[in-house]
Specification:
Layout: H1 13-25, H2 28-58, H3 64-89, H4 94-111, H5 113-128, E1 136-139, E2 142-149, E3 153-157, E4 163-167, H6 168-171, E5 177-178, E6 184-194, H7 199-211, E7 223-230, E8 233-243, H8 247-264, E9 274-278
Antiparallel strand pairs: 1-2, 1-5, 2-3, 3-4, 6-8, 6-9, 7-8
Helix pairs in contact: 1-4, 2-3, 7-8
């Protein structure tokens, strides 16, 4: 007497019952044939995946960050196809196999909706090329250099050395500022000097400070502008550019040289005459 399974699945119950009956009726020889075919196809799939990965490595049109995701999906697809071919070779209905996959896939999808949102977020982030590995990004959830983009989250390394994991579903629904997509990055250094000093002298000292730092680029050239006035002081803004991966050495170096250059120009370093404010870049 046949056991009726999956009676609550409606129209799929007959196919599922057919699959169950076929699997339980297989003899040892058929099992060995099916397993052998499956293993052989896995070996072939392995070489196909390696070939695909090598082609991706040579491609300049596809982001390198996306390579691992595409390889993983191809591997999963080939494993699924290999299982279907092996099953069909021993008489298991492919249509019934598909029903099982859809039924259990739907159940897993409903149980792991948050995981699927993160996977969808990964695809959106990579296809949209919002950022890539080694880019420095700022988000409401944290800032840092992108070290890894996987299916579930994005891994950042902060300037302080902290590792930050942000779910992909958060990143594609919030504001992300890519600080290094231009490959050059500007530091805005705000400072103020007593109004008794001529702006020309202050500008000359600030530009000399920028010129003393090897990380500062000549193009775009550093500039110094008057940014306002407060209680007997003149507010200045020194704008300097550097390579994105040399931003922090550049910024810190200019801060140090600016202090020394102003002092060497004969401007007394007192609280009333000069103060530094580190501005957001």
């Amino acid at each position: 007497m046949k056991t009726i399974l999956f009676t609550d699945i409606g129209g799929s119950a007959e196919l599922l019952q057919e699959l169950w009956d076929t699997v339980t009726s297989l003899n040892t020889k058929q099992w060995l044939i099916g397993i052998g075919i499956f293993l052989l196809l896995l070996v072939v799939s392995h070489f196909l995946v390696r070939l695909f990965a090598k082609r991706l490595d040579k491609s300049q049109r596809i982001s390198r960050t996306l390579h691992g995701i595409l390889v993983m999906f191809l591997r999963f697809l080939l494993i699924l196809v290999s299982a279907m071919i092996a099953a069909n070779a021993v008489g298991i209905s492919v249509s019934a196999f598909f029903v099982v996959f859809l039924v259990f896939g739907t159940a897993i999808a409903l149980a792991a909706q948050g995981v699927l949102n993160n996977i969808a977020g990964c695809i959106i982030l990579l296809s949209g090329k919002l950022f890539e590995v080694d880019d420095y990004i700022e988000t409401p959830s944290g800032s840092g250099t992108v070290k890894e983009i996987n299916l579930l989250n994005t891994k950042l390394l902060s300037y302080e050395g902290h590792t930050i994991y942000i779910p992909n579903s958060v990143l594609y629904t919030t504001t992300v500022t890519n600080m290094t997509s231009y490959k050059k990055r500007r530091a805005n250094l705000s400072f103020r000097v007593s109004a008794k000093y001529a702006p020309e002298d202050v500008r000359k000292a600030a530009l000399a400070a920028a010129a003393a730092v090897p990380y500062v680029l000549d193009d775009p050239a550093p500039i110094v502008v008057v940014n306002g006035y407060t209680a007997g002081h003149v507010n200045y803004l020194l704008l300097v550019w550097g390579k994105a991966d040399e931003y922090w050495p550049m910024r810190n170096g200019v801060n140090e040289q600016l202090y020394s250059a102003i002092k060497e120009a004969g401007m007394e370093m007192t609280d009333k005459e000069i103060s530094f404010v580190v501005a957001d870049q």
